Fold each of these.
Amino acid sequence: MSLGYLGFDNPAESLSYTDLDGQTAFISRGANVAFEKGLFVVVSTGNSGTSTSHPYISAPADADGAFSIGSVTATEQLSNFSSIGPTFDNRLKPNVVAQGSSTALITENGALVSGSGTSYSAPLISGAIACLIQAYPNVTPLQIKNTVEQSADNFMTPNNQFGYGIPDFGAVFQILSTIQLEGLELNHYIDGSKQFVIDLPQNHPAVKARLYNLMGQCVWNGMLENEKPLDLNSFNSGIYIFHIEDMNRSIKVVF
């Protein structure tokens, strides 16, 4: 969402800094409702960073349900125009930052140009978030939000200029892979000829696993492939535990 509201033609409808508490502005309340309904709301913080009267974010960037994006340069310095936090009730904003100074973009005529503003940094994050949602549809918006923030380079020392910093979406992709797998039900069965078959998620055709007996001894290790039978006839009948290492999950099997 590349927009922000503060001043209106009718001054009576304008917002002041005291209104930026995430609960007052109508659009901020809307962002909160959207997030609660399962939508991931990415917004620009605004371009008021050089203002002497109001260098702060605008609505709906003040909402808890809004993932607010500031701007940095290609050398990872804060863009001077990037609006800053905190919210009026002293919550951290922006959430993260991305390049919004001299950002490459393509015009409607197909020309490659550059532009500056948080209206350019927010779409970079939006595109990456959209890819994560497509890759991991069972992960919640809150899990994505928290993981993106935790991946950022300023996570340990956040501030109201950079927020948590510049995210590492490669790391986020790997972490969400584990989170999604931990929440999935793993269907499996053993047929009458002692063939073990497991049904894995679509984007995980195989997982690394180990098979343990009740003495805690590893009797097999290798790759379990989706819906490909694993012959268990070489093992004595009894109770065994499959430990799926890629998912940190265990499955009890009896044959």
Amino acid sequence: MKRFCSWGGGKDSYLAWVRASEADSPLPLLTMVVSGNDSTHQSYGEVVQRQAMALEIPLVSESVSWESYEDRFKDTVGELGADFGVFGTIDVEEHRSWVKSTCSTLDVTPKFPLWGEDPVDLYYEILDRGWEVRIVKLDATRIDERWLGEPLDTDFLEFLLDNSVHPMGEHGEYQTLVLDGPGFNRRVPVEITGSSSLGDYRIAQLDVGEVGENR
């Protein structure tokens, strides 16, 4: 049976991948990198490649624009000939509906291992698993800039809850990258060297190194 995990490089897709892989063998990754003219997009693509190398699993990576996203997603999944895909959506019905509708045209069964679960419980599960997860993008109108580049921890969760922000950032309030955790044979070498602005968002500038030897 051919399958894939829709991969964003952050905590949600990683948790979905871990749960699905615990029930079966590790899933190949599919990532759609929205292209841009700045170094942020290039660095993100490099991190995703390093993650796949550290996990030692296949990666299919496509560079797309927002306008071409859906068509390229359909083309790529169709070329994979997949029977089902795993997605990290938690509680945004609009996104789940889009995935289900898109997959139905390809005869692909979508699976949502995190759907409907308490986001606070999911946050604590990530902490309990001991992953290294860094905040690499945030909405500065909702989240103080001092959190950019910081790891997920209980202090950040307390800040989110105190300010009525979704604990898992499901509505785009913040985004993360996973640098180490179960399945990683070595840490993804990323250092945060600064930040830049894009509208209301602050984005971490990343220095991506070469993946070293296995542990």
Amino acid sequence: MTEKQLKILIVDDEPEVTRSIAAYLERIGYEPRGLNDPDQFMDAFLEFKPDLIILDIIMPKVDGVELCRSVRRLPLYCPIIMLTSKGDVVDKIVGLEVGADDYVPKPFSLRELEARIKAVLRRQILQAKALDSAAAANLLQHGNITMDLKNRILKIGKKKIELTPKEFELMRLFLSNPGRAFSREDLLEKVWGDNYRGYHRTIDSHINRLRAKVESNPEHPEIVVTVWGVGYKFNEDYQPKT
């Protein structure tokens, strides 16, 4: 969605306020809708599906604070800019405490409101990207192999593979570094820890058990392969058989 397609719902009991804001926002490329009756807010919100709400904090019947709370109870997130009385610190604090993203004191210039809208939308985009990155960081994937790090689940195709904790950590290390060869010392240090005083055969036995679970033919491994004279690696050229 481009900026010119973004929908903005303007809620203020003064028709001249909603009209002037809507006319300006339409002129600069947004799709605005004005609403003067706060009792109709939820119906308008669910039908219009705005990308941002401009909400007056002081209105008859239902004030902006209560409307802001009602939006924040919903599972979907929509940024909210509150219109507050000039110099009213209490309005600003209350608005932010109930979940508003920013506030603009009345009277305000339309250019200032435009700048606040752009800043709030920019923050939302950055936050969404950060959340996407965090979600992606919990998944490792190569071909038909998927590791869900949060729930500690390994799947090859649709088949769920049961791994011991150490097997899972070995597979995570390999899948995080496709093509990188790890010596047995590396694997002992990274999976078992610096203080572990085990033997190389500990690694070999775990690799054999891991291969028995993930390879279609453990005698001829295609996923976790041996690098002669070094150790083991995840085969970066691995492709599932069709």
Amino acid sequence: MSNSLSQATNSLLTQLVMELKSGYIRRCESLGLTPEEMQMLHGLTVDDLYYLLNSSVSVLTFQIHHENFALMLQQARREQQRMQRIDRALALGGSIEMMQHFFGLSSVEVSARRRMTGIQIRQGRCSTLSDEDNASLWRQWQKADIEDVSSADGLDVMMLAAEQMDVSLTAVWHAVRSFDGAQTRTVRKAIQAVRNKAGVGEELARRSA
């Protein structure tokens, strides 16, 4: 073991001495110290501690808990993905209501995240989609076959749609949530309106030919 690591492990002794002098012995017991060893630690002088802290011989050993280490790495990756989703959603115009719904963020947290990442709220973006955008979103959503609108997969599809159509993510979210019941009929009418408009254009082109 290197000198620096030995000194780092031995520095724990100082903390143990402070806890013993404060009457706390549970940590010492959890490390396997016997009552005799705890008495010896309690009686250490400043010079004794100085020698131990600078000794190249370690009195402690470390062991990696491989299962916990793997779990911590997985959690770190999940948290990184979560933060990336948050930043992407905010950049696409995700509202405070939407960020609360998907990530549980408060209005203060949303504002702080926007300031920290330099995300500016775009002005003048439509709060509702056009018939063409609504029809395109409907087809894309049906193709993705997402069962839960509030799922991470559902959010990814909505963010991709907002990027492709250059519209507010919040507008996409509101539109997707309306894709049921009577609102679905409205979307179908929008699709039909787009088709009718295209048909009229083709007819006019043929007549003028």
